[in-house]
Please model this.
Amino acid sequence: MSRIAGNIKQLQLRIVRACAACGRDPSEITLLLATKTQPPARILEAMEAGPFLTGENRVQELVEKADALAGHRIERHMIGHLQSNKAGKVLDHVTCVQSVDRLSIAQKLNRLCVARGRVLDVFLQFNTSGEDSKFGMSPARAVDFTRDVSRLSHLRIRGLMTVGLLAPHPVLSRGSLARLRQLRDLITSARIEGVHLRHLSMGMSTDLEVAIAEGATMLRIGTDIFGTRGLPPGTFWPEKEWARAGEVHVREGQAS
Ligand SMILES: *Cc1c(COP(=O)(O)O)cnc(C)c1O
Model:
């Protein structure tokens, strides 16, 4: 078994144990591989134990890898912050944008979908940790924001997403993860037409147990499957600077 396949097995055991600890059924949990900085060869290696959903953070990297993996059936979500002027580029390569964090990006995606005659699944991203550096709509605006996005004809709101508080101990991120579940309940009780929140996308390598206890249905895992990011996997695609992309991400999306 390859190292990645072994890591996936371990991770699946963790999921089963975490579900057992809180009386949930592991079949409720979808695993998404956070593949930023991972070259196509390693994604394919992981897929041998799959299939799994994958998620990318940066538009250019997403498009390059989608092209490189064009012959393979790999479902991809956008999970990183999306600038309006790049929205068109990702659309052809993703089945869902999880990082809808403001009305203007929802409107832009909707206009593009109208023009292309397609419907797009989206998750609404909330900043549940209160950290200034985090992307995501303010929880205080949850119902209004959901209502506004729900009026866009070609987007289907399918879930909520958050990046929990990055804390030295996962117990500390519990409040921010619980907050997303509370937002789901709040939005559901508002009974907005066309809104069916099937997914709570939360939980990463360090806090997946807490996320499962708080109701996650989709975990986004990178490190504990692929290893720590930032070392140049030059053996795979020496001409691409995946490692540098990873450092940028860590600064923009994680450490900051
Ligand atoms: C990188 C990333 C993850 C996965 O984080 P790990 O700690 O490597 O498991 C999940 N969600 C988002 C939005 C990410 O950028």
